Amino acid sequence: MSPQTSASAHDDKLPIRMLHDRVLVRTDTGEGERRSSGGIVIPATAAVGRKLDWAEVVAVGQHVRTVEPGDRVLYDPEDRAEVEVRGVAYVLMRERDLHAVAAERLQDTDDSTGLYL
């Protein structure tokens, strides 16, 4: 398995290989309460408009061209399929369902902000 198609969680190899244009990500936040930038606690039951979430890419299929394991991606949490591997919850999606990518490797370009929007 190449590093591009394998995944690691806590430095252990996951027993999974992604196919085609699939991307496996680990979400950054839980479903509990959040804090605003001003420090106000927002309960989990508060009504919020459509909100996108960030996640870390842990594995990609062989036809994925724009993201690599370790990148952070922006996605719509309503368009997701969850899977549990070794007790850890992951989200499985197609590459086309990603809205943006943020990665250290993207900072080398002089006209980039680090995000593909």
Automatic annotation (TrEMBL):
Q: What does this protein do?
A: Together with the chaperonin GroEL, plays an essential role in assisting protein folding. The GroEL-GroES system forms a nano-cage that allows encapsulation of the non-native substrate proteins and provides a physical environment optimized to promote and accelerate protein folding. GroES binds to the apical surface of the GroEL ring, thereby capping the opening of the GroEL channel.
Domain of life, source organism = Bacteria
User: Quaternary form?
Assistant: Heptamer of 7 subunits arranged in a ring.
Record carries keyword Chaperone? yes
Q: Which UniProt keywords apply?
A: Chaperone
**What is the name listed in the Swiss-Prot or TrEMBL entry for this protein?**
10 kDa chaperonin
Pfam families with a match to the protein in the record: Cpn10 (PF00166)
> Which molecular-function annotations from GO does this UniProt entry contain?
ATP binding; metal ion binding; protein folding chaperone; protein-folding chaperone binding; unfolded protein binding
* CDD domains for the chain: cpn10
Q: Which organism is it from?
A: Streptomyces qinglanensis
Family affiliation: Belongs to the GroES chaperonin family.
Query: Do the record's keywords include Disulfide bond?
Result: no
Which PANTHER family has this protein been placed in?
Answer: 10 KDA HEAT SHOCK PROTEIN, CO-CHAPERONIN GROES
